[in-house]
Amino acid sequence: MEPAKEFIIQKESIYSGALSCRGCGWTLLARYVSHVMGPNTVYVVPACCFSIIAGPSPMNLMKGTVVHTLFAAAAATATGVRHALDRQGKKDTWVVVLAGDGGTFDIGLQALSGAAARQENIIYICNNNAAYMNTGVQSSTGTPAGAKTATDPSGKKLPAKNLMGIIEAHHLPYYATASPAFLDDLILKLEKAKNSEGFRFLMIDGPCPPGHKHDPELSIELARLAVECNYFPLFESENGKLKITCLPPKKKPVSDYLKPQGRFIHLFNGTYANGIEEIQKQVDDNWQRLLKMEEITSSL
């Protein structure tokens, strides 16, 4: 696995003073999304952490147009914006959804599925920080098994929804996962999404110090460990062919990723019987499934 390259941004496409927590994955993501997409972009933001971080109009973080919308309506609003721009002949203006897991896995799933099924010409980016962080760290269906939240104080019993499997079922021209710890991979996937047409989907691992209960300075290290443990594998699908884009040279145990996070601390003090073993099995099973999908789709 190659280390992340050092990207030097000569001219920032976001303003200073983001209203984010220290070590927030959202602000890191916004910086590189705006760098790739450029100022001629309309960002559609449903209720999520980023609706606060982006700031109130006209003091937007992004050097582009930011449209705030309802929790359930991000993909529908983006569809309307895209069609309005097309009617005006502004086909070189990009439309990008920036949503959290609550507005993607749960409340916004119906609008997401509808836009994807219609192949609306938008880019949908989910910053997956695995809970409703903006409202007090409640569980979403993107919250992984074992994680403590305000609504699962003893640790969530069920694994996260396989959202990428749902995305795959829509036969999209391009979808991928990415991580702020692997910037070469992230930038390349953003550029591929930008240069494709139809509905494109990216899910980004979103470190969240207050929600995941880890030190802010560990955000990138934990994002890197998530990939190295196969907990958050990096892959992409172009026209139906799936490819794993980062292969750890030596897989690390999932406990290396779980232990520094307070949301998983109960797994290590005996209050969640066999929790680490169960999560390791889930991770291993998901990885084998992904390898099988890569093998099957490579011949298509």
CATH architectural label: 3-Layer(aba) Sandwich
Low-confidence stretches: none
- Average pLDDT for all residues: 93
Compressed to H and E, one letter per element, the order equals HEHEHEHHEHEHEHHEEHH
Roughly how many Å is the radius of gyration? 18 Å
- Strand arrangement within the widest β-sheet reads 2-1-3-4-6-5-7-8
Percentage beta strand: 5-15%
**Strand elements, count:** 8
Outline type: globular
Number of helices: 11
Helix content range: 25-40%
Structure class: alpha/beta
Task: Outline the fold blueprint.
Blueprint: H1 25-37, E1 41-45, H2 49-53, E2 65-68, H3 74-87, E3 94-100, H4 102-106, H5 109-117, E4 123-128, H6 163-168, E5 174-178, H7 183-194, E6 200-205, H8 209-212, H9 219-228, E7 235-238, E8 241-244, H10 255-258, H11 275-297
Parallel strand pairs: 1-2, 1-3, 3-4, 4-6, 5-6
Antiparallel strand pairs: 5-7, 7-8
Question: Could you write a compact summary of the structure shown?
Answer:
With 300 residues, this protein is of the alpha/beta class. The chain is 35% helix and 14% strand. The protein is built from eleven helices and eight strands.
What does this 3D model show about the protein?
With 300 residues, the protein is α/β, with parallel strands linked by helices. It has one domain (25-297): Rossmann fold (3-Layer(aba) Sandwich). 35% of the residues lie in helices and 14% in strands. The protein has eleven helices and eight strands. Strands 2-1-3-4-6-5-7-8 form an eight-stranded mixed sheet, sandwiched between helices. Strand 1, helix 2 (49-53) and strand 2 (65-68) form a beta-alpha-beta unit. Helix 1 packs across helix 7 (183-194) and helix 3 (74-87) runs parallel beside helix 5. The longest helix is centred in the C-terminal third of the chain and has 23 residues, at 275-297. It is globular and about 60 Å long. The model has no long low-confidence stretch (mean pLDDT 93).
